[in-house]
Amino acid sequence: MKTLGIIPARYASTRFPAKALAMIGDKPMIQRVYEQVQKANSIAEVIVATDDQRIFDAVQSFGGQVEMTAEHHQSGTDRCAEVANRHPEFDLVVNIQGDEPFINPKQIDQVVAPFGKSDQLQIATLAISIQDEMALFNQNIVKVVFGADQHALYFSRCAIPFMRGVPQSEWLSKGAFYKHIGLYGFRRNTLLELTRLSPGTLERFESLEQLRWLENGYRIAVSLTEEETIGIDTPEDLEKALSYLNTNPDQ
Prior knowledge:
Layout lengths: L2 E7 L13 E2 L2 E2 H10 L6 E6 L2 H9 L4 E3 L7 H10 L6 E4 L9 H8 L10 E7 L3 H4 L6 E4 L5 E5 L14 H4 L3 E10 H7 L6 H6 L3 H6 L4 E5 L10 H13 L4
Parallel strand pairs: 1-4, 1-6, 4-5, 7-11
Antiparallel strand pairs: 2-3, 6-10, 7-10, 8-9
């Protein structure tokens, strides 16, 4: 299987405009993401998908591959699909978020690995055990529940499953909860199909596009990781990333 890594990156962001070009040490964030993806053993090629000339020029300046995409895309998935449609030579596509400059290449390989075990697998993603009560009840952190076959049953901004009759302060000690990590692997043809789906009821309620896929019968395999990711959504997150870099200079 030949796998293409795509990093969707847009300039506009409500909470942190131009974050893709924010400097982390001596490199812009998009370069750090790109270089981490290149380290993954499973990725044959990496392309940044953007709708902004400034990001396009920045990627070219450090020697990366980049392609322009339409401005109307509503999600990174749609942006990835536009690029994937131009590259039929690839079997799999991995969507790597452009705001995770320290993503572990092994996690990318972990998302790709299940496709080698099943010809029927359509989509794969990651989750990590929640150990912090604030994270469990934070609506900005997406939770996932999955079945015995490790396929997702539901994603929610609420804490799931609900523990009836148990005080919320005891939920973590008496149950298992998982945070979804937004790293996706797709069969290329599946990715192209997903972009033709109309938003569903659950997606509109939760504002989570993966619920559109579940509503339409697509299955999402969930692998567990033990390593947290460092996403940058705000200038405050950038400060945390800089602190992390200071203590991890090899990154």
